[in-house]
Structures are given as structure tokens and as C-alpha cells.
Amino acid sequence: MGSPVYIQIHNQLRENIEGGKWQVGEKIPAERELAAEFGVSRMTLRQAIQTLVDEGVLERRVGSGTFVASRKVQEKMAGVTSFTDLMEGMGKVPSSKTISYHLTIPSQSEMEKLQLKGDEQVLRMERIRYGNGIPICYEVATIPAQLVADFSKEEVTTSYYRTLAERSHLYPGHAIQNVSATNATEKISSAVTPSCE
């Protein structure tokens, strides 16, 4: 059985980007134009684009369109180390500031990567992570809701991996981490402070 149509379009769009058809920061054609080019509905085309957005390949800008995102460093990690453990290993005091924490419906890409069913929700968590009170990164995490159903918000936002190990005896075996340097949005700029309480 062949791949779903939106995946085929996703693959072609990604190939175009990696091949240099559209450069970093360049706006890609409008959904209507791309849908006509591929001979599919705008809904199918939108699904393909959203998958690329979830992967960090494209980024949507309200009122402007969809653009090729800055290059990201993708690291496949075996024996996952949490941010808390990483900071402590460097002799720094880790802390976090939660910006957003809510249950939501996963995107198609997230459903596939997390192997979720259509009726399952995810926890979407956005945090600023600090080392010795200095902002290190802005993190967006998507977690299957069933894994944190019995955890308090404080347990999840303080150190999710550690809580998962101590409370559920579950240890992530591998992960794919996308790291990128980009200009801060107004939302991130207003949220980041020199220190974390």
C-alpha cells in the first residue's frame, strides 16, 4: 500500500526545500497555488504543510504566509538525558518557567510519531529553561496525556523525565531533539526574564 497522499506531498515539498528550490526565510507559494500544482484539495495540502511545520521545516507567520524555517540541528539520542540532569551535571542549578500548559488534540504528524489513536489527547507544554538563573532555551514539549494523567502540574513542569522514572518506572529509550537558533517572537521576548523565580 502506498503512502497517504499528504505524505507524498510532504516528501516532495521537503525534497524541494532541501534541493534549494526555496531558501531559508523564503515564502513558499500559497496553499491554493500548491494545491492546484499537486492536483489535491487545500485540506490535503494543508495537512502536508502542517506536518512540515511540526517538523520545524516550515514556519507560519500570521498575516504573511508560510516560510522556510532556519536550519535546525537534529540530534538522535540514546539514553535520554533530561535538561535537569544535564544542568546538574554541569554544576548549574536548573529551573523552569512555565508559559503554557494545556491538553489539546495532536497534529497528524504527532499522532504518527507518538503512535496515538484518533481520540487521544496530548499535553502541550511550553517552558523557559534556566541554568543558574540564565535563560538557556525555550522548550515546546508534546506528551501523550495518558502518561501524565496521575501527575501534578508541578511534577511535570519541574522535571518530567525524572518524575516519569520515579513515579512510573518508565525510562525513555531514545529521542529526537530539534534545536534551533532563531529570532525570538514577541511572545518569547516578553516571557524571557534574566532570572527565574
UniProtKB/TrEMBL annotation:
Pfam families: GntR (PF00392), UTRA (PF07702)
One GO term (biological process): negative regulation of DNA-templated transcription
Record has Mitochondrion as a keyword: no
Domain HTH gntR-type: 3-71
UniProt keyword terms in alphabetical order: DNA-binding, Transcription, Transcription regulation
InterPro entries: Bact_HTH_transcr_reg, Chorismate_lyase_/UTRA_dom_sf, Tscrpt_reg_HTH_GntR, UTRA, WH-like_DNA-bd_sf, WH_DNA-bd_sf
SUPFAM superfamilies per record: Chorismate lyase-like, Winged helix' DNA-binding domain
Protein name: Transcriptional regulator, GntR family
Source organism (scientific name): Limosilactobacillus fermentum 28-3-CHN
